[in-house]
Amino acid sequence: MEPKVVIVLACFSATLTAYVERVGFSIAFTAMAKEANLDEHVKGNVLSAFYWGYGVSQIPGGWAAQLYGGRRTLIASFLAWSLACLLTPGNASSVTLTVLARVCVGLAQGGLIPSVHTVLSKWIPPHERARAVSLTTSGMYLGSAAAMLVLPSVSALFGAASLLRLVGLLGLAWLALWLAVGSDAPGRRSSDSTIPLTCNEAQLKQDLPGHRASSAGGAALWASLMRSSAVWAIVVNNFAFHYAFYLVMNWLPTYFNSVLLVDLNSLGVLKPLPYLVMFAMSNVGGWMGDALILRSKRSVAAARKTVNTIGMLSAAVAVMSMPAASGMMSGVLATTLTMGTLGLSRGGFSVNHMDIAPKYAGMVMGISNTAGTLAGVIGVAVTGYILDAAGGAGSVGGWWQAHSLAAVILVAAMFVFNAFAKGTKLFD
């Protein structure tokens, strides 16, 4: 097997493992909170603690990946969050300690996606990047689907606390794999603990803020990134993607219970279907983008914009179809179409970091993913206010308003990407 294929598969398994952990904790703590008779607002605070750590660590994670290499940052990330999982209290009575553990997990996982992009940007040529990034990020959705199928049974057999130990051990297992095969770039031995810096990396290390040699160059780089309309095109689309994604993911149980009058847990094998389709369509988007470049001879920018446009417009239509659902099957279909088309769009904006800033892909991804995390916090809260203002979750009118807002954001982001996205190196 080609070394670059091994790297891509290792990065894919990294995102899969991380999302098994996230879903696993949600399943475990929901059961533990029920046993402890915790109020809903306490449960919500614990479940959201991860995102506070995750949101603030994206940019530092990208910086660390660029400064020390994606391999080392991934090692530190997986070691830290795996240990935090293993040390998480096994019951819901220790709320403060559990919140602290979840913040630590979020802080540690903040370096995951920027580090993966940093590694892939050095291993994968431009005409293969859409497939590589799409496959890698699709691990999130396959991991979510697998966790939803398997972990409830594990919890029932061995107890909810067993999930915390299981996901922690899975993280350490991936770490062992990465220590064996991980490498920052072709030609660098995975076991080399003193990886030599390239000229550009050495200059960056000298220029980044905090290095005693100089901070002016690093400040200039950050300023240049933040002034770039191409970077903001990616940021806006990451925000729009995650606004819709987190809206559906977090409000899905309420949508089924209050609008369709169906318990989500009663769906059985249909429950992970949206995530499985999202996994498949994420890879379709990647293959489509690379095919446009290789076979249709489209420019990189045109290929990214084409895939992004199809994905975002389709997702806007699909998310509007959810409030129109009249039963369980139509609800599952609408949800699956929404998640699938969102997955397709990742073959556009989500690959573009490595097109415009291959040397600094992790840093751009850190900025972009911060916006994506912020979208989750804002979108979930705004949806709650909209539903309350419309008379509660049982009012279909509120769902129409909330999903219309998501659709408008998706379409607006698509226009921004078409206007300002670039396909050539802007920062190198």
TrEMBL record:
InterPro entries: MFS, MFS_dom, MFS_Na/Anion_cotransporter, MFS_trans_sf. The keyword Chaperone does not apply. It is a multi-pass membrane protein. Pfam families: MFS_1. The chain crosses the membrane at residues 132-151, 157-181, 230-252, 272-294, 306-325, 331-349, 361-387, 399-421. Residues 1-18 form the signal peptide. Residues 6-424 form the Major facilitator superfamily (MFS) profile domain. It is found in: Membrane. Belongs to the major facilitator superfamily. Sodium/anion cotransporter (TC 2.A.1.14) family. This is Major facilitator superfamily (MFS) profile domain-containing protein. It comes from Tetradesmus obliquus (Green alga). The lineage of its organism: Eukaryota, Viridiplantae, Chlorophyta, core chlorophytes, Chlorophyceae.
